UniProtKB/TrEMBL annotation:
This is Dynein regulatory complex protein 10. InterPro entries: DRC10, IQ_motif_EF-hand-BS. Residues 118-127 have a biased composition (Polar residues). Belongs to the DRC10 family. Residues 102-147 are annotated as: Disordered. Component of the nexin-dynein regulatory complex (N-DRC), a key regulator of ciliary/flagellar motility which maintains the alignment and integrity of the distal axoneme and regulates microtubule sliding in motile axonemes. It is found in: Cytoplasm, Cytoskeleton, Flagellum axoneme. Component of the nexin-dynein regulatory complex (N-DRC). Interacts with CFAP52. It comes from Fasciolopsis buskii.
């Protein structure tokens, strides 16, 4: 399967589904989407049959009417496709089957006709000096245009008959699933391709359509255009005239809520600034008190040390005074005792 997912509804992201979570309830809307889905299913059936081999159909055991309708459609489709090849391409394809001498003669004629802006008629009897019969060429062009229109009409009738035959055939019921799958399946969808009729606010419920690589490039482009058309119609079906009024109302309410919240934020910001200033002031005051306390303790320590030093000096002085007094009294007694013995 192709890795490219195509949204089945026109939304960019899953978040956009939340405001439009609803389903298509109108019968007319369902019929319109049903017609589009049925057309896409028929196109996919035709694409699938074009990619089916005829020998496979012979061995598949189809009923006679279905096999006949399919083979007739494939034959007419091949004829119509080959008839729509560009003129110059058909001419060069025809020239490739000629002999070398005929190829050289035909190519020179084709180049001269294309240079003059004329439509060359390959295989006509002429020589280098003769000019082609324009009346005969016009008649051939008219006959080819008439045959192409007739072939187109036969092909249209063959397609209608083919779709009518295989419409109720169970053999072709699941044939389109090989070319288009929808994941995840919607809970509310049409039976043809299981494309959604509702959206949900769950991101995993956003359906995606996947195209198979078996489709050719033009076929894939055609289906992409159909899916985009379906997504646009689906989105328009979900959108009502009241949505614009609701949108304006919701936007106004959101703006009012935003303004209210902004005012609250401004008030809280100013309160925060005041608290921050108070906190800074209190912090500075605490730091100042702590510094002053440290200074007081330092001064008290110095004062105690000074008092201890003074007390120590006073004690030393007292001891020295007692010692000198003791020495003086001792000397005085020794002198008095010596005079008495004499």
């Amino acid at each position: 399967m192709s890795s490219t997912a195509i949204p089945c509804q026109k939304f960019n992201t899953a978040d956009e589904l939340k405001t439009l979570s609803r389903s298509v309830l109108s019968g007319d809307a369902r019929r319109m989407l049903g017609v589009l889905d049925s057309a896409m299913r028929k196109i996919l059936l035709v694409f699938a049959l074009e990619n089916t081999n005829i020998t496979y159909l012979d061995n598949d055991g189809l009923d006679g009417e279905a096999e006949k309708a399919i083979k007739k459609y494939l034959k007419l489709s091949q004829q119509y496709s080959s008839g729509r090849i560009p003129v110059t391409e058909k001419i060069h394809m025809d020239i490739a089957s000629y002999t070398p001498a005929e190829q050289q003669r035909e190519e020179s004629y084709v180049d001269a006709a294309e240079k003059n802006g004329e439509t060359p008629n390959v295989g006509s009897e002429y020589n280098g000096n003769e000019k082609p019969d324009m009346t005969k060429m016009d008649e051939e062009n008219e006959s080819s245009a008439g045959s192409e229109a007739e072939l187109k009409e036969h092909l249209l009738l063959a397609v209608r008959r083919l779709l009518r035959v295989i419409k109720n055939s169970p053999r072709f019921a699941n044939l389109t699933e090989n070319y288009l799958t929808v994941k995840p399946r919607s809970s509310c969808s049409l039976p043809d391709l299981k494309l959604p009729l509702s959206v949900s606010n769950f991101p995993e419920a956003c359906s995606q359509a996947y195209l198979s690589d078996m489709l050719s490039r033009p076929q894939s482009h055609l289906m992409r255009y159909f899916l985009k058309l379906r997504s646009n119609i689906f989105s328009n079906m979900l959108t009502t005239p009241q949505d614009s009024k609701r949108k304006k109302k919701y936007l106004k309410e959101i703006c009012n809520r935003l303004n209210e919240q902004q005012i609250k934020v401004d008030c809280l910001t100013s309160d925060l600034e005041i608290l921050t200033a108070k906190n800074n002031e209190q912090t500075l005051e605490e730091e100042y008190l702590q510094i002053m306390e440290e200074r007081r303790l330092e001064e008290e320590r110095k004062q105690r040390e000074e008092e201890q030093r003074k007390a120590l000096e006073q004690a030393v002085c007292t001891i020295q005074a007692y010692w000198r007094s003791y020495k003086t009294r001792k000397m005085a007694r020794s002198k008095r005792g010596g005079r008495g013995r004499k």
